[in-house]
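Recap slide: DUF4357 domain-containing protein, sequence and predicted structure.
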Amino acid sequence: MSVEYVLERQLAVAHGYPSTGGSRPKFVVKAGSTAMKDGSPNVKRKTWLTDELVRKGILAPDPRNPSLWVFQQDHEFSSASAAGDVINDGNLSAPQYWKNTTTGKSLKEDLASNP
């Protein structure tokens, strides 16, 4: 596995890592990560993607907090931003918010220094 990143948005905390190389890698969110059910009402949402993940059993209600979904298994997204959109329950330019758990640098910074 590559470097691990963490994304914290409101009550949600997610862990993941890039699964491919390049400047816009696919991104895996790890099982046990959480996502907001109802994010800010002022942002666009990809509800279709969240709905699909719930339908497939990848996201389920978090038994500890009714405001959250919890990932039941690792899931690969097309990008860190797509993962961030689901976790945030709204559009998010996620590479700047995913933080390297070792260095504290953003995924965006790490991608810029390792093209």
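The helical segments are 47-55, 80-88, 107-113.
Residues 5-101 form one domain.
(End of recap.)
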